[in-house]
Inverse folding.
């Protein structure tokens, strides 16, 4: 799928160029349909500054409007959604796999979802259970079993945690700690 905009109207089209629908979304509106995104597509309406989901025929899906919506990625069961300033993970049927009760919630990486609650970061599993307790100033995405993290109280430091939240590289004064392409 692709999106084109002319003025304040966005159109969703198929690979062969056939237009599926057009919708007025404002001069800065968009339909997120690139990469591995699948319907219902996340959509931003710049006229009223809201986010919704759209079906392939242009009708609204999954209620809304929302403060923010992320894409439903190929093979993903849920997307991150903000409702009244609180974040959760919405399933494709409009129900919530993880209730909208977090300050922020990210996308899964290696089965763990970084989230913020009461100003601290931790990680959830796809069912919403806390896997890594909320005790960090920040937790990044997991790669090869590890994630960059910042300790609470000293955001200038970064270390590397494993899937339980245990430090494998203790925090040090640096911009980031990352796992290399070969896992080192």
């Amino acid at each position: 799928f692709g999106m084109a905009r002319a003025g304040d109207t966005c159109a969703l089209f198929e690979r062969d160029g056939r237009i599926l629908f057009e919708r007025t979304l404002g001069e800065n509106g968009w339909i997120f349909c690139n990469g591995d995104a699948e319907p219902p597509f996340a959509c931003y309406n710049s006229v009223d500054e809201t986010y919704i989901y759209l079906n392939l025929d242009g009708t609204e899906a999954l209620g809304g409007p929302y403060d923010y919506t992320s894409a439903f990625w190929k093979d993903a069961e849920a997307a991150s959604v903000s409702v009244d300033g609180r974040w959760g993970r919405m399933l494709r049927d409009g129900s919530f796999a993880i209730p909208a009760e977090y300050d922020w919630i990210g996308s899964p990486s290696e089965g763990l979802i970084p989230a913020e609650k009461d100003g601290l970061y931790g990680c959830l599993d796809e069912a919403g259970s806390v896997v890594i307790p909320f005790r960090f100033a920040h937790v990044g995405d997991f790669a090869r079993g590890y994630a960059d993290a910042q300790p609470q109280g000293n955001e200038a430091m970064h270390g590397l945690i494993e899937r339980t939240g245990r430090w494998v590289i203790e925090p040090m004064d640096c911009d980031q700690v990352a796992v290399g392409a070969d896992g080192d």
Notes: The mean pLDDT is 94. The chain has no helices and 20 strands. The CA atoms of residues 111 and 125 lie 6 Å apart.
